[in-house]
Amino acid sequence: MTSYDSFISNSIVEAIQRRETTLFNCDSFKLAIFLDGRVNVLLDENTLREAENHLILLSSELHNIDPVIREGPTVSTNNIECNEVDDLELELRTAAAERSSGLVSSQDQAVLDNFMQFPREDKSKNIMDIWTRLKKMYPLMYEWALVALALPTTQVTVERLFSSLKFILNDQRNRMSPSLLEDIMVVRSNYLFDKS
Fold first, then answer.
1. What is the pLDDT along the chain (196 residues), one digit of tens a residue?
2. In whole angstroms, what is the distance from residue 52 CA to residue 48 CA?
3. What is the Cα–Cα distance from 33 to 117, expressed in whole angstroms?
4. Fewer CB within 10 Å: C terminus or N terminus of the chain?
5. What is the pLDDT of residues 79-129, one digit of tens each?
6. In this structure, are residues 69 and 141 in contact, taking their beta carbons and an 8 Å threshold?
7. Which residues have CB under 8 Å from 50's CB, separation 6+?
8. Nearest to residue 44, comparing CAs of 28, 23, 30?
C-alpha cells in the first residue's frame, strides 16, 4: 500500500480513526458486530464482554415487551405488602428477580460461548441468510439478531430514509395518514436494506 504523507491524507486517516472510536463507543454497533459471524473475530475480549452484556440487556428488554419470548423470573413478595401492583412495583420486581437469578442463565451463556466458537462466515454472504440458516441452532439468538441488526448503527440509513420522504410525501399525497406513511417507510427501508 502506498503511503501518503500530506495534510489531506493525514486528516482523512484521523477522521476515520475518530469515526471508528465513535462507532465502538456505541453499544448497538458492538452488538451488531458480535452477531455478525463474518466479522466478529475483530472484537477484542473487552469489547466481546461489552457486546454480550448489551445482548443480555436486549434480551431483558425484549422479555419486558413480550414475555412469551422466555418464561419470566418469579419473585417472592412475602415481605411486601401492596394491595395494587403498579408499573413501578413491576419494574422493582423485575429488577429484584434479575439480581437474584442473574441476567443470563448458564444455558444462555453456553449458547453464547458456543456461538463464538462457530467458524467465521464468508464476508460475501448476506447476514440475514446466515441467521436464517442458524435459526434452528440458535432460536433465541436469532430473535435477538433480528432486533439488533435492524437498528441503524450509523446515521446514513436514517438520513437516506428522510431523503426518501420527498418521493413518498409530495403534493399529491399530502393527506396521507401517519400510519400509512409509516407502513410505506417500513416497506421502503426493508427494500433498501435488502438491496445493500
1. 445 566 776 777 888 888 888 888 888 888 888 999 888 888 888 998 888 888 888 877 777 776 544 443 333 444 444 445 567 766 766 665 555 444 456 677 788 888 888 888 888 898 899 999 999 988 888 888 888 888 766 667 667 777 888 788 877 887 888 888 888 888 877 765 555 5
2. 6
3. 15
4. N
5. 444 445 567 766 766 665 555 444 456 677 788 888 888 888 888 898 899
6. no
7. 27, 30
8. 30
Residue 43 and residue 122: Cα distance in Å, rounded? 17
Contacts of 152 (CB under 8 A, 6+ apart): 158
Helix (H) or strand (E) holding 100: helix 87-101
Backbone phi, psi, residue 74, to 5°? -105, 145
> What distance in Å separates the CA atoms of residue 116 and residue 48, rounded to the nearest whole number?
10
Cell of 89: 412495583
For 134-152, b/e burial (b = at least 16 CB within 10 A) is beeebeebbbbbeebbeeb
Distance CA 72, CA 104 (A): 12
Query: 139-148 vs 45-65: helix axis angle to the nearest 10?
Result: 90
CB of 150 closer than 8 Å to CB of 68: no
What is the predicted pLDDT for the residue at 130? 92
